[in-house]
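Re: the 401-residue chain
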Amino acid sequence: MPTRSSSSCRLCGQPITTQALSFSALPVCNRFTPDGRVEHRMTLDIVECDTCRLVQLREAPPSDTLVPTVPWIRYREPEGHLDALAGELLALRPGARNVLGTGPFEQPLLSRLGARGLAASALALDLPIVEGRFPYLESWQATLNVAHLAARAAQLGTFDIVSCRYILEHAPEPVRALQALKQLLTSDGLLLIEVPDSSKFLAARDYCFLWEEHSSYFVEETLRDLAAVSGYRVAALLRYPGVLEDALVAVLERADTAALPPAARGPSALFQAYRDNFATTRAQLRSRLSAFAGPDRTGIALFGIGHHAIMFVNAFGLADLIALAVDDDADKSGFFPPGFHGPVVGSERLLADERIKLCLFAVAPHIEGKVRDKLAPLAARGVQFRSIYAALDNSILKDPA
């Protein structure tokens, strides 16, 4: 529900006094458990700065609350554009000799640049082992600070290209993170920042893209502003299209001085519509899904149990309507997704359950066809297939008529 918020913008530092889209008592999306207990819930307030228009969490959760408690939490980021991106980087710095990756998603790009003759290195996440804790993205973003990166620069030297893919949107202090990364650059080095562009999901009014691990939701305008405020010039701003969200790549050079924060732009119609449409969307969705679930709540399966599916169920309050949480990842089998009423089962269980009337897909569009083929017997007996993603033609958020 919309609530009034007051905080400071993590990009421009100005007060934020606009209404928030607020979600209370949401479980952490990576906290799969063997028994379904939810030991920690949090409130997420999504706000837009009415000065620079950065959409962001009003308060980022403490990183310790986000550390996975199972060892198999891993995410994948787009790779299909990396050959083209490697070419763009070398066109901007044809004399580059070395490259450093600063997070868990760097190896595909490092391999491509290494094949073109650059010496490729990667930072490691060196943390003490703690029983029942398996550090991942929340700990990588915490390394983007002056003290840590100064120590790594003293150890490793500086680099002609430094890559930071899909980490900056996690950082509670992105300006300080960018400033800290300068220590790893040669005087004329390039810093590559890759983030998901948020404009498509905001325009589609898709709420499953919200995530407690994303402190900032960048679009082209706010990524440019972030670079300038942090003391960089944009050498190139590249966009690589995706069905649900584009990959946005800023290639940055040092600037002599940091720019002043942007002048006040006022709240955007894009975020206002996104915020204000939520309550109506939730009511319509629950009504639609209740009809499929039936009085016994046995009619709906959800296929693909990642953080999008978990946010979809918990943000909209749908756990009681999901009869089967389905995923063929063996690591997830038998675990309860956070906030769900039942454990993850495999597709064989779904195929055998003749009560299912609707199968919701929470899988990437490029693999949905393969999933449909696997589940063809369901279609043959009249089960409907719909996507949770609002931008797709077969979205459950759209009226099939």
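Residues 285-387 form a domain with the Rossmann fold fold (CATH 3.40.50.720).
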